[in-house]
Amino acid sequence: MSKLQSLKKAVETIADQSxxxxxxxxxxxxxxxxxxxxxxxxxxxxxxxxxxxxxxIDLLCAAGSVATVDxxxxxxxxxxxxxxxxxxxxxxxxxxxxxxxxxxxxxxxxGASANVPFMPVSGLKYGDLIEHNDYFVVVEDPFTxxxxxxxxxxxxxxxxIHVQQCDEEGNAIIAGPKFEDVLMSRxxxxxxxxxxxxxxxFQIKQNKDxxxxxxxxxxxxxxxxxxxxxxxxxxxxxVDEQPxxxxxxxxxxxxxxxxxxxxxRKDYQQERGTRVW
Amino acid sequence: MSKLQSLKKAVETIADQSxxxxxxxxxxxxxxxxxxxxxxxxxxxxxxxxxxxxxxIDLLCAAGSVATVDxxxxxxxxxxxxxxxxxxxxxxxxxxxxxxxxxxxxxxxxGASANVPFMPVSGLKYGDLIEHNDYFVVVEDPFTxxxxxxxxxxxxxxxxIHVQQCDEEGNAIIAGPKFEDVLMSRxxxxxxxxxxxxxxxFQIKQNKDxxxxxxxxxxxxxxxxxxxxxxxxxxxxxVDEQPxxxxxxxxxxxxxxxxxxxxxRKDYQQERGTRVW
Amino acid sequence: xxxxxxxxxxTCAIADMLEDGETVFHGVSSQMPMVAMHxxxxxxxxxxxxxxxxxxxxxxxxxxxxxxxxxADLVEAGESYFPLDQIFDLSMRGKLDVAFLGGVQFDVNGxxxxxxIGDYHKPKVRLPGGAGSAVLIPTAKKAIIWRTKxxxxxxxxxxxxxxxxxxxxxxxxxxxxFVFKNGKLQLDSIHPHTTLEEVQAQTGFKLIYDEIRYTKExxxxxxxxxxxxxxxxxxxxxx
Amino acid sequence: xxxxxxxxxxTCAIADMLEDGETVFHGVSSQMPMVAMHxxxxxxxxxxxxxxxxxxxxxxxxxxxxxxxxxADLVEAGESYFPLDQIFDLSMRGKLDVAFLGGVQFDVNGxxxxxxIGDYHKPKVRLPGGAGSAVLIPTAKKAIIWRTKxxxxxxxxxxxxxxxxxxxxxxxxxxxxFVFKNGKLQLDSIHPHTTLEEVQAQTGFKLIYDEIRYTKExxxxxxxxxxxxxxxxxxxxxx
Lengths: 277, 277, 239, 239
Prior knowledge:
The complex is a heterotetramer, with 2 copies of chain A (277 residues) and 2 copies of chain C (239 residues).
Chain A: E1 4-5, H1 7-12, E2 19-22, H2 32-40, E3 46-49, E4 52-53, H3 55-62, E5 66-71, E6 73-74, H4 84-91, E7 96-99, H5 102-113, E8 118-121, H6 128-132, E9 136-140, E10 147-152, E11 158-166, E12 172-173, H7 181-187, E13 190-198, H8 201-206, E14 220-223, H9 241-249, H10 253-261, H11 264-267
Parallel strand pairs in A: 1-14, 2-3, 2-11, 3-5, 4-6, 5-7, 11-13, 13-14
Antiparallel strand pairs in A: 8-10, 9-10, 11-12
Chain C: H1 6-17, E1 23-26, H2 31-42, E2 49-52, E3 56-57, H3 73-76, E4 80-81, H4 84-92, E5 98-101, E6 105-107, E7 112-113, E8 116-118, E9 123-126, H5 133-136, E10 142-146, E11 155-156, E12 168-172, E13 176-181, E14 184-190, H6 196-201, H7 220-229
Parallel strand pairs in C: 1-2, 1-5, 5-10, 6-11, 10-12
Antiparallel strand pairs in C: 3-4, 6-7, 8-9, 12-13, 13-14
Helix pairs in contact in C: 1-2, 2-7
Family (chains A, B): Belongs to the 3-oxoacid CoA-transferase subunit B family.
Keywords (chains A, B): Transferase
Organism (chains A, B): Gracilibacillus ureilyticus
């Protein structure tokens, strides 16, 4: 059963105020084409979840689409520096930053994948994060009486994951580091795959040991070559430095809109429904 | 750094009263050579942990080595029937059966792998298992006020896992189903690998994407071809029906000892320290 | 009229309980449901998702599962890998449609005993244990139990020990199909070769039913497909 | 006398903190510790276990990590795969020996701020966040912080916000090495090119020390190896 969908159609299924888990990590394999289309469709109130985000979170903050960000770290890496749009959005009160240890995002997603309301976290013992955030609470372990910190589970409505290879049914293969993507695919209510390449049933069969996300977990497959750019996509392309640097310097809403518009041709290249194997 | 050890030496490191997580599932890839050597060395008071066990648990019960069994299911599969020695040991009070849902064993091991004292389990809602076992407790979710069942984490002292391929440093590859073995390797304090084959550094490098247990988690590597027999070992051998059926019919302690002794030549075939690549 | 055995009838009746597109799980010692799931995929439910303990999603064949329904053959013949721990998680999330489970004793109130006869801590008989039942029967949308024994010690007024209860949907035996409805185990259909009197005689509680329906007999197409997909007759392992 | 830059000195000093056989983790934006770990493995600590976010255990080279210390190159060059979530678990189990972490503000009591300047919920400056710090500093046996800025706004009497504290062991800066001992951040050594006065002038709390030690200079062998393993000078990325 083919689950192929156009980028536009797939993004249309995302309701405002949705909780979205975004795949990849910092400058790597972020589902940028999908993120840009979220901005184009002027989604609002999105709740973003990721251990360590960069351009994806920064762009959606710049577009005004975000209500909250649950993450352990939001920043471009050293050479690119800090995420100006995210910082501004948080500092002006537009966006609420729910700071986690990266691990507590993982724990909260593990909680969702097992459908439990919280997960215990042994490492979170000290500091103001526990005090200031209502998603952490310290309770008494009923077995030993010792204090234990719990993190409230985060239940993503949708996980959006960019991969190198996927068949039409949704069997998805991530080359290189998987980051939290596999976990996200198990934690989210729906899974949308954007993929560099649609591979044939024969090809996927030859590589079945490498399938990270089996088809039956996947709701939609979107064919977007270059869909992680300007972040990197292992075995396909490295970061695209020029647009990244450009984006960091943008100030006006209009400039951001133009930046996103400039990707339209690339992001929509498969929209004509051509079947590419 | 080579971690190669003889079967005898590796088993000597197991203290009486240890908590042991045994790899494999029912009739498949149980670490039987190690289990037999535990019996030969007359270990006692062992606490066994496994989702679904069969010949391994049955044999250690027959040998009088077991104090408790934490499992969801203990039985040979249909054609072989029920585990006579385990049943007798439990029914006479020699062994305490801690019945779990298989999932709560998994949850309890996940708890150990994250070093938390318990794990919430959403599915365990009804029935007498909750009442009769002190490792389950129902508490109030501090976030929602709803009841939630917790299972106490199980911290294995040692995970014993039989694999098809391992290098001398402990990089281990499981062919076919992994069952709970990978989780056990993360939950236990120490990991002992028994392996069909010691592979060269070059071979392991060629197959590094398939490594399930990285060397730095492994404490000892024992070369035991046939080490899962008479249970099956995928790509190596299928169940050995004759000894299995014979074992099921044994009644006397002496018969059990003989049965175990009969495996000595096979179990010790690598003891002379021959380096086999 | 077609010629079939009771194991054929049970297997086909189980297959008929499954709908296209459902996610369905079986465990160990479960050759009959395993074959039934495969039969359903071959006939009316090509998009059924077949899940199992070793983790082989939609195995293309079950012909190698001679003595075990938890073997590596299901992974080898599978189209992807999705192992037990994740199947449990899936069920917890409400995304497992059907789970096949066993048990030794069942009562009219839908309680299942797979644990002990006698005291839990000093049992007269230690049973194999409920395996996944205690978490799957409450969370799978529909739990189906198959049992090749039907006698008054199996179907009782009150089980010795409640291993679990929950979303029990149907129980199939060599004599009949029970359906769990309005908190009671009710007669859904009796098999063509038996009578209401026989079923009642073999059942330890008073049968509840409004009308007598007969279980659908296997079709010629089902039997023919069964012979192809299960040539070594694993479906009859428990007989 | 050997010729070296401050980034060389810091990298070698970090490498010297690591012992053979230790399990050591670095995160994103961590080129300097990444190169230092690799240096240690090449020289005195061949059995050090190098762990990182993408999951490449003991990458054979770090030459491709141009702009990122969390890229696929570390997996490609790695000997096995052990990703972030499991590294955290490892630390929770007390089996991570050393974690390299960042931070923006540090105080004399060993508190780390990587979160905000100003009110947490309405911050004057939103910082990137502590990443793994809040769970790794309490659980890794030794947490090492490196920071390429050393000024009175970085080292303060009391941080604005306590992201975490715990098993902080050392902090290395372009001027000195602090050691956390008896609940206080104390001067461990000052770098050869600076003076106690300069370090004090750039530090927002009164320095605690018993004697003045100087940080060991890089050896010729270390510098030579550095040039081989880090020919593109990623160790200086933050300078």
